[in-house]
Amino acid sequence: MKLNIKSLVILFGIIMSLMSCSKVFDDITQYKSLDPGMVWTDATYTTQYINKFYSGLYGNFTKNDAPATEEFGLWQQNTWTQFNTDQIAAGSSSGIQAYTSFSTAYPQIRDLNRFFENVDQGTYAGKKYLKGQAFFMLAHWYFRLVRTYGGVPIVKGVINASNPDPQALGQPRNTTLECFNYMVQLMDSAIVNLPEPTAPGAAISGYEKFRVTKPVAMIVKAEILMWKASPIFCTTPNATYWTDAYNAMSAAKTWLDSKGYGLYTTFRGTTPPYTAMFYDEAGAKKEWIWAQEFTYPTTNSGGLYKGMRPSQQGGDSEAAAPTYNMVQRYMMADGKDTLTSSFTYDRKLYWKNRDPRFRQTIAYNGSRYGFPSNPTALVNPNRREWTFMGVTVKGDKPFDPTTRGGGFGFLNRKGIDTTLHNQELDKIATDWPIYRYAEVLLNMAECAVETGKYSEVKGYLTPIRARAGIVNVDGSYGLASVPDNRATWIKIIMNERFVELAYEGKRVFDIKRRVLFGDFREYKYLLGVQATVNDAGVDALKLKVPRNGATIVLAKLSSLSLAYEDVWKALSDTMATTANPDQLYQQIMTDRVIIGDGGKTVLNPWDQNALEPIPSGTLLTDPKVEQSKDYGGPFNPKLN
Q1: Structure confidence at residue 297 as a pLDDT band (50, 70, 90)
Q2: Mean pLDDT, the chain, as a whole number?
């Protein structure tokens, strides 16, 4: 099911037009002139009250949760080295953006509690669905708090009713186990009350499609139980917790399968499904169980994806700068690593013979990356992305550690609408996936391993790899020889999540949930690839370059006085017509792996920082809330 932004805009406009004053709604300005009895006895007003929570709900599912991983190289070396320090200052956080503050969550919780205190004044039809949404959102806010801090105060009443910011909760933290039990209870209530789509994307009479439904609640309940069982809370595996997670995720998958959900496997012309699903809104509903939807001309996703486009194609910054560390996480074309693959790995041609998702996610120097030409641009059907350094001419935002103005030699290309040229960015309406069926399969694989059901694991992973285009050399898409070993399988599954769900805001939470900071200690530094143009090699090509309406043969780059784009086009055309583009690349480019920022300390995040400290500002305003043990306090946020 998808979020219809147009519906939200209309509904929020109605909400904001309701201005009046009643103490019970002091902090909800749209209700100021309404008698509380009118709100709770009128279906339209109560529905509008629930609508207001959706902006906060969906606003937390964005690419903003992706920074500080291998997906975003720019400045992240600094983030991870600061992760061990500056923790207890007022309002501080780790800086990895995967946290929720008390001041963000508890006003929402207070208003949801107000809903439950009053909603039964109404007797209208459809109240059940409103309750289901409220149960879901209440569980959602506690979930964000618990995965940030561990146990937090469970507040069930309307505290500080006349204050828009309920700073002083006035009660201590509940245990982490109590919080998990409460979240599951809330989500069970949501599941009972929410409606069921009869098929992927099916319309529910009287229920706008942007709202949460039963399958969404089932998936989130299972995810909550996975967090409960994961290493962030259980330093040693707990079989009962993992069984609960397995059963909940299995129930969600069984329901989805019965309704026709599954992997999107359609080619759109020559575009493979892993990319095509971002362009096929109707077809993608089979896999995209929950997504933020953008619909041109009402709304567009330009702000979400514009910064990830090449600057020549309207990108305003390299917001997503894949690192060489990320490049190394992709398997070979047969699903095996570089040491055991039947395909040859050449570190100088690192893009060859790789998992097809690599080329569909990462643009590298010299990679094919086509866009339509705008009316004033050079026609370039052979377009390639150029990010090389050079004295005479440079690529698009090259990796230059001295200026930090670009990426790490790579750009993200996942979700980028390549059907639009740089003068059509207002038309970008690419949806944003929140939960895909592929993630349900990955979750099932992880739960199966943790419960010892090794015979099931390949059945969850091989459909994902088959859809990706992995060559099935061993009969199991590279997984045939994996032993029934927990640690080995977990490593494979987490890497598969990294690759399959890249740039979908998942990696940073995986790092925290499974305490994968060892990946960064192993890296030591975030790395990039700096490509440098070989002037002599390019000069030998005798590039054909347009100049003043004519085409000239360029003998030396050093004599160039043309726009960079002309050289990029000439290089792309030459690469397209040569019999051996890889050999030509090595003639004209020299690549070297370098440290993204050598001035920063070696990456060495501490495992105990998987959970955040309670900021000192909260401790001062709410003395009953105790600090966690890892930060000098008495509260134990762990489950064992």
Answers
A1: confident
A2: 86
* Other CB atoms within 10 A of residue 167 CB: 16
Cα 293 to Cα 299: distance, rounded to the nearest angstrom: 9
Q: Cα–Cα distance between 252 and 219 in angstroms, integer?
A: 6
Contact criterion met (CB below 8 Å) for 81 and 600: yes
Per the CB < 8 A criterion, the answer to whether 606 and 83 are in contact is yes
- Look up residue 485 and give its two tokens: 């070993």
Architecture of domain 2-63+75-262+609-631: Alpha Horseshoe (1.25)
d(CA 399, CA 438): 33
Pairing of the two strands 527-533 and 589-595: antiparallel
Residue 222: per-residue pLDDT? 98
For helices 437-450 and 486-500, give the axis angle rounded to 10 degrees: 170
Cis status of the peptide bond prior to 297, with omega within 30 of 0:
yes
Q: Hunting for tokens 């809370």 — which residue is that?
A: 233
pLDDT in tens, 466-506: 999 999 999 999 999 999 999 999 999 999 999 999 989 89
pLDDT of the residue at 78? 56
- Least confident interval from 58-72, 305-319, 601-615, 618-632: 58-72
The residues, any chain, with a CB within 8 Å of residue 250's CB and separated by 6 or more, are 444, 447
Cβ neighbourhood burial of 96 (10 Å; 0-12, 13-18, 19+): buried
What tens digit of pLDDT does each residue of 389-431 get? 998 899 987 887 766 545 788 988 999 999 888 888 889 888 8
Give the span between the Cα atoms of 236 and 229, in whole angstroms.
9
Tokens 């000069």 correspond to 539
Write the CB contacts of 367 (distance below 8 Å, at least 6 apart in sequence): 351, 359, 384, 385
In sequence order, what are the beta bridge partners of 433?
291
Reported in sequence order, the residue ranges of 394-444 that DSSP labels E, i.e. its strands, are 410-412, 432-436
User: Would you list the DSSP string of 249-263?
Assistant: HHHHHHHHHHHT---
Q: What's at 590, amino acid-wise? A: T
Domain residue ranges of the chain, discontinuous segments joined by +: 2-63+75-262+609-631, 295-321+366-430+527-595
Q: What is the largest CA-CA distance in the chain?
A: 83
User: In Å, what is the CA distance from 537 to each residue of 545, 577, 590?
Assistant: 16, 16, 10
Rounded to whole angstroms, the Cα distance separating 321 from 409 reads 8
Answer yes or no: is pLDDT of 58 > 80. Answer: no
pTM of the prediction? 0.91
Number of Cβ within 10 Å of residue 594's Cβ equals: 17
d(CA 208, CA 582): 52
Q: What does the pLDDT average to over 228-257?
A: 97
Show the tokens assigned to 606.
């501490």
Q: What is the tally of helices (H) and strands (E) in the chain?
A: 23, 11
* Chain-centre distance for alpha carbon 289: 15
